[in-house]
């Protein structure tokens, strides 16, 4: 009797297991279909009111940080999307955020360090393939931008041909491939339909030129420092800004990495860690700039070193609150800041 019950139980369990596998497939299909539909309907631009908005796409640096994409910031004026820099992983992060690469109107580069441009080729490709444009993506930058954009166009030329052959010229117009470099001097670099963009030089020696940007729209303004050492001029350029988006490097924390590298017998990395503080602004210095500029909000990006947990934010910003009377935020990928028209 016991043997019969045991055999019957085994049969029942086998049937239940088989049924569960069938239901797994059905559940998986439903979940996948729902996720795809949600993804296609996920467009953050559609939900934003008129105004000036900032989205932190990537807040990382060349130092490995699994929670952050490479440096990239979106500025949205009304429904117009502008991208400042495009670091590694930034385009994929745009997809997670619901920021369609195809909606990118223009790109503005701060400088040509690899971590600020190593996602640019992907952005050009996704904008072209996703948007079906018949003209390349305008990419603004200081002297040297033509070399960068021309090089990326050449690097992606074979990929361009493959996609045209596969999808057809009606879907991916050949004339819309890649980017068009637009070289500027500092000063007003765009004034169009109420949106102004001003470029100003920053100190990132030996990297030159290096640029920061001020975006203004309907009485609101956002300043993005790019990579920059402290200077009195930063406060002048950021005067009265609603939001100051500043890179930040904590030299004490980087010093810990330097010491650890030396103790581990890696003098090359130790030397790099010793070198980098002199051409980046510290959190405390950025707070002083924000105070002198009378900015309303300070947001850190390009975080150095990596902060694997938010519990380290207080250590990273130590002393900054003593310099700035406004709010301070340690940026994280996906953060959105909105400024309504005045």
Q: How many domains in all? A: 1
Under CATH, the homologous superfamily reads Ribonuclease Z/Hydroxyacylglutathione hydrolase-like
Report the CATH architecture. Answer: 4-Layer Sandwich
Radius of gyration: 24 Å
Protein architecture, described:
By secondary structure, the chain is an alpha/beta fold. It has one domain: Ribonuclease Z/Hydroxyacylglutathione hydrolase-like (Metallo-beta-lactamase, Chain A), CATH 3.60.15.10. Helices cover 39% and strands 24% of the residues. It has twelve helices and 14 strands. Strands 6-5-4-3-2-1-14 form a seven-stranded mixed sheet. Strands 7-8-9-10-11-12-13 form a seven-stranded mixed sheet. A hairpin with a 2-residue loop joins strand 9 (211-217) and strand 10 (220-224). The radius of gyration is 24 Å and the shape is globular. The mean pLDDT is 93.
Please supply descriptive tags for the structure shown above.
342 residues; alpha/beta; Metallo-beta-lactamase, Chain A; seven-stranded mixed sheet; globular
Summarize the structure.
The protein has twelve helices and 14 strands. The protein has helices at 2-40, 44-47, 90-97, 114-117, 120-131, 145-155, 157-167, 232-237, 251-263, 267-275, 283-293, 313-316, and strands spanning 52-58, 72-77, 80-84, 104-108, 137-141, 179-183, 187-192, 195-201, 211-217, 220-224, 243-249, 297-304, 327-330, 336-339.
Strands, helices and their partners?
Blueprint: H1 2-40, H2 44-47, E1 52-58, E2 72-77, E3 80-84, H3 90-97, E4 104-108, H4 114-117, H5 120-131, E5 137-141, H6 145-155, H7 157-167, E6 179-183, E7 187-192, E8 195-201, E9 211-217, E10 220-224, H8 232-237, E11 243-249, H9 251-263, H10 267-275, H11 283-293, E12 297-304, H12 313-316, E13 327-330, E14 336-339
Parallel strand pairs: 3-4, 4-5, 5-6, 10-11, 11-12, 12-13
Antiparallel strand pairs: 1-2, 1-14, 2-3, 7-8, 8-9, 9-10
Helix pairs in contact: 9-10
């Amino acid at each position: 009797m016991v043997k019969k019950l045991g055999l019957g139980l085994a049969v029942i369990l086998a049937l239940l297991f088989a049924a569960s596998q069938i239901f797994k497939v059905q559940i998986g299909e439903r979940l996948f279909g729902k996720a795809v539909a949600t993804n296609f309907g996920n467009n953050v631009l559609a939900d934003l009111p008129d105004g000036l908005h900032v989205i932190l796409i990537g807040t990382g640096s060349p130092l490995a940080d699994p929670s952050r994409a490479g440096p990239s910031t979106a500025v949205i004026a009304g429904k117009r999307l502008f991208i400042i820099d495009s670091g590694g992983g930034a385009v994929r992060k745009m997809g997670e955020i619901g920021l369609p690469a195809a909606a990118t109107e223009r790109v503005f580069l701060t400088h040509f360090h690899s971590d600020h441009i190593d996602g640019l080729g992907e952005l050009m490709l996704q904008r072209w393939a996703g948007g079906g444009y018949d003209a390349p993506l305008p990419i603004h930058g200081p002297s040297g931008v033509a070399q960068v954009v021309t090089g990326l166009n050449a690097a992606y030329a074979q990929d361009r041909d493959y996609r045209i052959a596969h999808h057809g010229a009606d879907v991916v117009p050949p004339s819309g491939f890649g980017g068009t470099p637009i070289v500027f001097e500092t000063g007003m670099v765009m004034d169009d339909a109420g949106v102004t963009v001003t470029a100003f030089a920053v100190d990132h020696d030996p990297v030159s030129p290096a640029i920061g940007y001020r975006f203004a729209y309907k009485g609101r303004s956002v300043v993005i420092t790019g990579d920059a050492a402290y200077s009195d001029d930063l406060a002048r350029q950021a005067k009265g800004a609603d939001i100051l988006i500043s890179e930040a490097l904590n030299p004490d924390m980087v010093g810990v990495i330097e010491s650890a590298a030396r103790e581990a017998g890696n003098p090359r990395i130790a030397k790099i860690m010793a070198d980098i503080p002199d051409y980046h602004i510290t959190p405390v210095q950025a707070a002083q700039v924000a105070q002198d500029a009378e900015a309303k909000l300070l947001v850190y990006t390009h975080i150095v070193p990596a902060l694997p947990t938010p519990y380290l934010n207080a250590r990273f910003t130590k002393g900054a609150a003593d310099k700035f009377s406004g709010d301070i935020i340690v940026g994280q990928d996906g953060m959105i800041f909105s400024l309504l028209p005045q």
